[in-house]
Amino acid sequence: MASSTTTLKGDEFDRQLFESVLKRRFFFTEAFEIYRLSPNFKGDNRGLFDYGPPGCALQANIVDMWRKHFVLEENMLEMDCTVVTPELVLKTSGHVDKFADWMCKDSVKGDYLRADHLVATVLKARLARGTRGLVKDSPNLEQATIDEYNGILAKIDNYDGDGLAELIKQHGIRNPENNNEVLPPVPFNLMFKSTIGPSTAAPIYLRPETAQGQFLNFKKLLDYNQGSMPFASASIGKSYRNEISPRTGLLRVREFLLAEIEHYVDPEKKQHPRFREVSDIVLPLLDRETQLSGKTTSRTITIGQAVESKVIDNETLGYFMGRIMLFLAKLGVDQSKVRFRQHLANEMAHYACDCWDAELLTSYGWVECVGCADRSAYDLTVHARYTGTSLAVKEVLPEPVKVEEWQATLDKKRTGPRFKKDAKVVQSAVEALDQVALESLAAELEKNGAVVIETPALSDGTMNVELSQELLAISKITRLQSIREYTPNVIEPSFGIGRILYSLLEQVYWHRPNDAARAVLSLPLAVAPNKVLIAPLSSHPQLNAISHRLSARLRKMGIANIIDASSASIGKRYARNDELGTPLGMTIDFDTLTDGSVTLRERDSMVQVRGLEDEVMAAIRGLLEGTETWEQVTGRMEVFGAQEEDY
Ligand SMILES: Nc1ncnc2c1ncn2[C@@H]1O[C@H](COP(=O)(O)OP(=O)(O)OP(=O)(O)O)[C@@H](O)[C@H]1O
């Protein structure tokens, strides 16, 4: 499509105006709005939104593109798992103990504030006041203070509770809304808790991510994939996080659509067969060291170079970062407003060993829209350990190889009577011990005469046993190995669809020159909610009939379209659809009745061409399928030029 004529620069962006367009056109609205206005409404509906028709269509188109770009392109195994998750699963995965953010309480009003956001908001405001003279007569900040604040902000995600408490104390940080003091940060678990059925004895959580359902089915997925590695599963579904204080519209919500890929890979073979397809893509990277040095400027580097120099840990991680970049480009994201930021050590989720976020630049600053984490073997290992179900891969070696290894043997004559119905569980726990564990246990057994090993849950609820030398022997043996067993590592690209949708909308929003009331959303054809507006110039029944026929023709081609036969001026109708991001407009007038010609208007340039109905239909199809550009269409059809549109 033609490029926008007045792209809004960062400073000119008027969020209020932009959001009023989205609300007016019903992209989304706050949930339970009419109840929230009631004096009896006690709840908190922040972070809960309903999508209206264009928001819904845009979301569906993004998801459709995601499915084609990832699931279809890579033969991923898609799953749809339940939201309701037993506590035990999330206890094992570490979410019950660790999936928390730090929050501070306003000492007077009792409001809760997310601690890292509080510090960042206050320091940013001080910097804005003290360096840009935003507040009249406010003193300029000393350069050393400016550097200190910037340094803190560059690594704000790296502070734990104590670190945040120290910052709050040291910098006299208070609630910016009322200047009240805040209490020291405490952790708040972000999962919504409930119970299943009438019994309170069966606690559940709404899943905070789709990943766990995929991991629990790993054995079945591997079988379905004929035991072949590597492979990926994928899932799209609602996830829930009880965010402490959501204030940034669609960017931080409590219920959101997550699209996640879990790519299972041999830990010793993290090369990717299609790596060469992405190795020349240039990525803007903001790595860990740069952030720790207090800087926030990313550097551009090809994925190939980044993997070779180990800035990106391995090919598979690099491959997915490249695929994420290509996906965002297809959606219409401004490539100069994307960067990949590496997680700092404390920021990383409890399961991750490396993580890069794809961040998009918005009026709220850089926003994480896609997380790309190497979860190592963490999840499969903990679930296998707890349940005693093997989630390992057995690889048949091309030739048997001689291996020296530690072997643990239980004396079953003794362990049977000793552990009774738990004997099998104890045995599976011993069998699950890896070589590193066996080596240190062998030394411990020799030294102390007994060792304690972790087990899946036993009948008395405990999860470990003591094994003396009488019950357990650990020795080094040499054997011929024909099967290698390993727990796969997982590379996980995780896409917050709502964040991508909102950031994209901000990036494609602009208005006609000198007319802030005429907003345009330059959404690409592929994701625009409606592709074609059909506008009859009069309400004449014959023109109406043609509109419906054209609409049906487009529908038959799978092209979403909308008829606007209202009495509003054609300029108004175009303007309305510019705000909806509709890329093309077909106008039907009385000439259509005599010579069968129709007009096709392009949203961004407002240029119109005229041709026979079939020609215009072919142009629309070509534009949608990407076999023709708008420039080519204007080259071969009669051009009207940009029309002055009465509004
Ligand atoms: N509260 C939320 N609202 C909307 N999208 C979210 C929210 N939390 C996470 N996401 C999306 O889910 C993706 C994967 O989640 P992940 O756990 O990596 O996020 P996160 O690091 O916890 O995010 P943040 O640091 O912003 O809280 C994110 O990249 C983001 O797009």
From TrEMBL:
InterPro entries: aa-tRNA-synth_II, aa-tRNA-synth_II/BPL/LPL, Anticodon-bd, Anticodon-bd_dom_sf, Gly-tRNA_synthase/POLG2, GlyRS-like_core, tRNA-synt_gly. GO terms for biological process: mitochondrial glycyl-tRNA aminoacylation. Its EC number is 6.1.1.14. It is found in: Cytoplasm. Its main location: cytoplasm. GO terms for molecular function: ATP binding; glycine-tRNA ligase activity; transferase activity. Gene3D superfamilies: 3.30.40.230, 3.30.720.200, Anticodon-binding domain, Bira Bifunctional Protein, Domain 2. PROSITE patterns: AA_TRNA_LIGASE_II (PS50862). It comes from the Eukaryota. The keyword DNA damage does not apply. Residues 191-513 form the Aminoacyl-transfer RNA synthetases class-II family profile domain. One of its GO terms (cellular component) is mitochondrion. Belongs to the class-II aminoacyl-tRNA synthetase family. Homodimer. NCBIfam families: glyS_dimeric, PRK04173.1. This is glycine--tRNA ligase. It comes from Chaetomium fimeti. The lineage of its organism: Eukaryota, Fungi, Dikarya, Ascomycota, Pezizomycotina.
